[in-house]
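Hi R.,

Quick one: here's the MFS transporter sequence you asked about.
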Amino acid sequence: MLTNEVTKKSRNVILALLFLGWSLGNLDRYIMNYAVVSITGDLQLDASSTGIILSAFFLGYAIMQIPGGWLADKFGAKRILLLAVIMWSIFTGLTAIAWSLTAMIVIRFLFGIGEGGFQPASSKIIATIFPKEERGRAMSIMLTSGGIVSLIVPLLAAYLLGTIGWRMMFIIIGSIGAIIALLYWKYIQLPKAEIVEEAGTNHPTTKVNFKELLKTPLMWNLIIAYFCIYAVNWGLVSWIPTYLQKNRGLDLMSIGWAQTIPAITTIIGVYGSGFIIDKLPRGMEKVLGSISCAVIGILLYLMFTAKTVTLFIGYQTVVSIFIAFVITLLPVIVLKKLPSSITGSAMGIANTGGQLAGFVTPMAIGFMVDAFNGSFDAAFWMLIGFALICIVSIVTLNDQKGTLLKA
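And here's the predicted structure, written out as tokens:
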């Protein structure tokens, strides 16, 4: 279809529905970081086991990224979107009946498999119905769901865990997913033809072989950059509640209030980044992206050496802005530099790096904390190392070589 065949009103309706789906997916992921405090008590788990639970979702999610993107390109984004929402809703609800560490790991892994096709499919829809000059804004709106949810979750989790408990909480979240799936089935209507005319050209996009995509240098830079920035992001998100409770002496409600501050800056950072990126001259993405990663590394050091909780939250607030920029920048590069006909596959490949980081990092931090008698210092140094690697991967981005990358 041609991008201008979809009316502005239809695009906005679809964008709003996608936003709801991204919000629900983020809700489950973020709220698990608070629920796990109660879960580990009920199931009598140590830090290493907690890390495995937090990582199990990301393993399934990472495994499904490439197949999910390929399926979206092959069979249509709406079908994969629906399948993803239905599957993750089922396994979110089943989280409530987990009776052991093994059961929890299996359920969370299958939940990750279910959700794995959602981001590639929704990204393909954005690339298909929005012209290039609006894709950064559209993607930033999607990504603000994470910031909004991270703002709500600390207090929501504290309330729900203290009233209805973690098991009933996951049943309710799964039920909401079923409602969203129904809305998608009824209201997301895409034209049948999926031949996309790129903005600024007079011919349809050429189909690209999957193997050719994997040979593209840009893709490997993006995989590494995705891994590094999401290692930092999920390392902080998954362990900060536990860190503030055990190492800084805060209770769950105090943690909830404290985390609203960086959550607000994340929303502002992601939303603003989309508009900034859409207006950047060619080549400036690498400059601002690498500078942001350097600042992230410095702020991580200041965080774990902070003498007070107030300073820690202050540094976390600032670092969240720069993380938000890089997390917004990377998918927009995919949407703008690669043909829309392979956006699903490309996003799936790149995002595999990010979700592998989500699998590895929480588990690695758990083992480090046990190995160093409860200290998080080694974990913070690991995250700083990832920020430095991210600088290199962004600086060396090259979209001049390879036939796929001509914008």
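Residues 193-206, 401-407 have pLDDT under 50 and may be disordered.

Cheers,
M.
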